[in-house]
Amino acid sequence: MQMEALRPNPTGLHAGAPLSVLPDLGAIGALVQQEVAACEVELSALLGSNVDAVPEIGRYLLSAGGKRLRPLLTALGARAVGHDGDISRLMCVGELLHLGSLLHDDVVDDGQERRGKPAAQRVFGNPAVILTGDFCLARAVLLAAEEGGFRAVSELGRTVTAMAEGEVLQLVNAGNLALSLDAYLDVVDKKSATLIAWCAAAGAWARGDDAAAEALQTFGRQVGVAFQVTDDVLDYVGEKRLTGKRRGQDLAEGKMTLPLVIAMERVPDLRERLRKGRPSPERIPAIIAEVRASGACDAALAFARQRVAEGIAALDGLRPGPYRDGLLALAHHLVERVR
């Protein structure tokens, strides 16, 4: 893929523009409000164990909040294909896997904070947090088998494999200033998009509707890439009170994000300056300003919007209705969090 494809018309993200994150999902969440509420109750129950540290760590992470994007996608996708049964436990699969991956991520990254609270391993220690992450993964697989059937659990196995590969790729590419766009997208697809794709298709697999599942999986994968790219942009334009992350956190950790990849193509000496080592905290604001001034955030958002458009096109064959409309609105919301 050529970088020239990432040179869009301006979208208004100038270096000094105030930016924020949309505060809630509003009417989208209202479509499946009861299902989401039931899922929240189930999540707490599913983290139960007679080993006290497991629910303590799991609920510590739950209490920090979160978007619950994955349960919402599962609910909307299931209802869109006519699944009218209890889906609260199926909705928990993706969130449990996500929670487990967050616990593991914070250990790997030696994270200090998660959603405004000390990261779990800072409170409970690495061994207990790693093993609780494993517990969440095991629960997710069991639930997928019970609630989604063979195809759902088979696809979940592929998803977990891809996520692990994506994490390793991100780790080995930390600070790799020669990272290509295709290599970056491979990390994003494996690490983030595959799980979102699984969540979107889970209800269709549970109903045995493979054609709808394929469409929803394509939708979820494209939207998942767009979601991660938008998160990348928020590292340069977001506000901690809204994102839960300080601006420039990914940059400081040496993570390669799409705005940085694009900015280094547009400002060649930026790459050379970064080769001298990770920027000090004092240098971070200047680099952020330089990336934004290059138009890299505009280009990344345009790329994300194109992925959303491709994902939405995959749902053309789905029966029209409020839940399909909810999926489309959610896809747009995930990119328009930046405004």
Summed up, what is this model?
The chain is mainly alpha-helical. 69% of the residues lie in helices and 1% in strands.
3D architecture notes:
- The protein is built from 16 helices and 2 strands.
- The chain has a single domain, classed as Farnesyl Diphosphate Synthase.
- Helix 5 packs antiparallel against helix 8 (181-207).
- The two termini are 27 Å apart.
- The protein is mainly α.
- The radius of gyration is 20 Å and the shape is globular.
- A two-stranded antiparallel sheet has the order 1-2.
- Residues 1-23 have low confidence and may be disordered.
- Helix content is 69%, strand content 1%.
Pattern of helices and strands: HHHHHEEHHHHHHHHHHH
User: Distance N terminus to C terminus?
Assistant: 27 Å
CATH superfamily placement: Farnesyl Diphosphate Synthase
Q: Sheet bearing the most strands, described?
A: 2 strands, antiparallel
Low-confidence stretches: 1-23
CATH architecture: Orthogonal Bundle
Rg on CA atoms, Å: 20 Å
Number of domains: 1
Task: Report the top-level CATH class.
Answer: Mainly Alpha
Overall strand count: 2
Shape estimate: globular
Quick check: average pLDDT? Answer: 88
Strand content: under 5%
Give the count of helical stretches.
16
- Report the structural category: mainly alpha
Widest sheet, order of strands: 1-2
The CATH topology label is: Farnesyl Diphosphate Synthase
Helix content: 55-70%
